Amino acid sequence: MASSSRSGTLDSWTDNAEHWDKGMGSEGNKYWRLLELPSLKRMVPIAPGCKALDLATGNGLCARWLASEGASVLATDGSERMLEFAAARTPPEHEHLVEYKALDATREEDFERLLATERGREGFDVILMNMAIMDIETLDPLAAALPNLLKKDGVFVATLLHPVFVTSNATQKVEIRSDLETGRTTIARSRVITQYLNVPPYRGVAFETQPEWQLYFHRPLHELFGVFFKAGLVLDALEEPHFTDEASLDPKNPEDHSQIPVLFAFRLRQRD
Predict the structure, then answer these.
(1) Domain for residue 104, yes or no?
(2) What CA–CA distances, in Å, run from 171 to 189, 193, 199?
(3) Which InterPro entries would you find in this protein's record (predicted)?
(4) In this structure, is the dihedral angle defined by the CA atoms of residues 147, 150, 153 and 154, taken in order, positive or negative?
(5) Residue 4 near residue 78 (C-beta atoms within 8 A)
(6) Which of 76, 160, 231, 270 is a plausible cystine mate for 103, CB 3.0–4.6 Å?
(7) Using H for helix, E for strand and C for coil, what is the string for 182-211?
(8) Helix, strand, coil proportions of the chain in percent (round to 5)?
(9) 1: in domain
(10) In this predicted structure, what is the pLDDT of residue 238?
(11) Under 8 Å CB-to-CB from 226, ≥6 apart: which residues?
(12) Which residue range is the domain that position 83 belongs to?
């Protein structure tokens, strides 16, 4: 999901586009199916005639879901290569509901161009950014544009890697413990956080096999929400998606935890 203009951010997403598309496919991975989508279904109100803006659409997972629920969707991404893969995965029955357009969410001028269009002037009932906030270097253009792009009762919904437990670059630990009475082994997962308030951008990968690294941008919660509050938006829903089914936990992946959430989801509205 690409929305930045610096080398290592937008460029890396363009370079990784084909690999990302193959990895996510049309149905997404287990994080999409078990964590992201359930939260989005609870947070995103989709009524008949809903107009939606999908920012950083990647290979179009959210755009396809919104369209399947009957929304008219403008799906955008900073990488035109990503948009090509997203368009190719759009089912024929939803092609009339989804339009794809290049938009870099870190660029004020891109939002200004959108606001100058008829669709932008009419506004959106739903603006969605799924799993991309931690991938972009600045939220200021997005926050400034939201009050103008949202309809009166519109909402902005975002999901991202958890700012406390993941993008703080916490150390992940998996311990295999033996029960001396039963003779059985148990797996204990934990995280050690040594930095939170000031974590500089760092290189990482979404898929271990992807050809290029990407940059992650950590924001403590007061910074994450502060930029939106300053723009006049208010928080009205928050979730910390986590795995609840032990069968879904991969013992080799310390991010899979039933007590420590890996994701963070929130919804904002305009102040009354």
Answers:
(1) yes
(2) 11, 7, 13
(3) Methyltransf_12, SAM-dependent_MTases_sf
(4) negative
(5) yes
(6) 76
(7) CCCEEEEEEEECCCCCCCCCEEECCCCCCC
(8) 35, 25, 40
(9) no
(10) 98
(11) none
(12) 10-168+197-270
Residue 61, both tokens: 């997972």
Q: Rounded to 10 degrees, what is the CA torsion of 58, 59, 64, 65?
A: -60
Which domain CATH number covers 158?
3.40.50.150
Range in 62-66, 100-104, 129-133, 206-210 with the lowest mean pLDDT = 206-210
AA identity, residue 248: S
Residue 37's CB is within 10 A of a number of other CB atoms, namely: 18
Spatial separation of the C-alpha atoms in residues 196 and 190, rounded to whole Å: 16
Q: What is the CA radius of gyration of the chain?
A: 19
Burial environment of residue 173 by CB neighbours within 10 A (0 to 12, 13 to 18, 19 or more): exposed
Angle at 88 between CA 86 and CA 93, to 5 degrees: 100
Please give the sequence-ordered ranges of beta strands (E in DSSP) within the chain, or none if there are none. 51-55, 72-77, 98-102, 124-130, 150-161, 171-178, 185-192, 202-204, 214-216, 233-239, 263-270
Mean pLDDT of the chain: 91
